[in-house]
Amino acid sequence: MAVKILSVDDEMDLELLLTQYFRRKIRKGEYEFLFAHNGLEALTLLLKNPDVEIILSDINMPEMDGLTLLAKINEMRNPAIKCIMVSAYGDMGNIRQAMNNGAFDFATKPIDLDDLSVTIEKAVEQIEYIKMMQAAHTQLESIKGDLAVASEIQHAILPQIFPPFPEIADRYDIAASMNAAKDVGGDFYDFFRIDDSHIGLVIADVSGKGIPAAIFMAVSRTLIRATGIRGVTPMECLRYSNNLLADESVNCMFVTVFYAIMNTESGEVVYCNGGHNSPYIMKSDGTLKKLPVSENPIVGVLENIDFKGSSFVLEPGETLFMYTDGVSEAMNPVYEEYGESRLEKCLGRMGGSGCREIIDTVRNDVASFVDGAEQSDDITMLVLKRNR
Predict the structure, then answer these.
(1) CA dist., res. 199 & res. 263, Å (int)
(2) Phi, psi at 134, each rounded to 5°
(3) What are 184-217's pLDDT values in tens digits?
(4) 113, 225, 262, 341: which is deepest, by most CB within 10 A?
(5) What digits encode the pLDDT tens for the residues 66-79?
(6) Hey, what's the torsion of the CAs at 48, 50, 51, 57, to 10 degrees?
(7) Which residues pair with 201 in a beta bridge?
(8) In Å, how far from its chain's centre is CA 316?
(9) How many Cα atoms sit within 13 Å of 145 on the Cβ side?
């Protein structure tokens, strides 16, 4: 598209001079000239031609001078409009005022058209750069809006109603939270009823951050839930999920998973840990028992892996605390990690606490430790307490 240039000057011969000098660029469609003879005419033309990009304006004109026109153009707040001011060589005071008021450049009369041509080309380069930045800004704003919607969708697919199983709320307390490091994250938690006496519990951490991790998270969560809800063992669930994820994995993405099935009648918990952080069993007296470190690989890397499981009984008054490494690996401004020892001290003070209180206390303790440092990883917790 042609660059539209508005020439504003009360000297009529300038129109002929400009159209003759720039005739080749005009014929090629590179430049298009519009002409006004004072500031008022110029404003009228600008209203009719909002795509004007360069204004070549004399300073001394009747009805509305160039400095007043420049002020009116500044009110439009369009950085893609460049004003080149023209005046007599001896009028340096007005030229200086114009430059201080935001003019792009200036030329003196009699106009050196070769020099003016270079100035116009320089203005065109600046305009193209500004337009590119404006387009990038618009694109970023669009992406930001999409991410906000994606964040809402991601949180919507995670269970948000607590207590989730009202029929056993007097016997079991459950709470969970996920705080993404970016707009969307790769951590997730889940819980679902398998039958009248069994519930499934999942906490997982996808490799990477941002949108790729969020997509892989949604796929992993759906796959594990759909498989687990059929009532297969945690070991079989992870074996089946692992084969599908490994077969479809892009960019070597993977997920660490802790999946447990709890018998709500007996308190027995059968679990399988696919490379995830070992949960803690919190006793009512404040003592902690950490489950054995996983011997299983992470999920989604190698096919045809047999996953091993184990079991324990969650006794009345005990709490199962599950978390992702965003908790233990949270860093303060000097890059020191929160660590498992601090987590254990924090948990040790909450032996008889409810699940929501445990989550809030750990989150606040981590926040106090990081002391305002930027969150580097998603922070997710899932807590189950057996009341009786």
Answers:
(1) 7
(2) -65, -40
(3) 888 999 999 999 999 999 999 999 877 888 888 9
(4) 262
(5) 999 999 999 988 88
(6) 90
(7) 191, 260
(8) 42
(9) 6
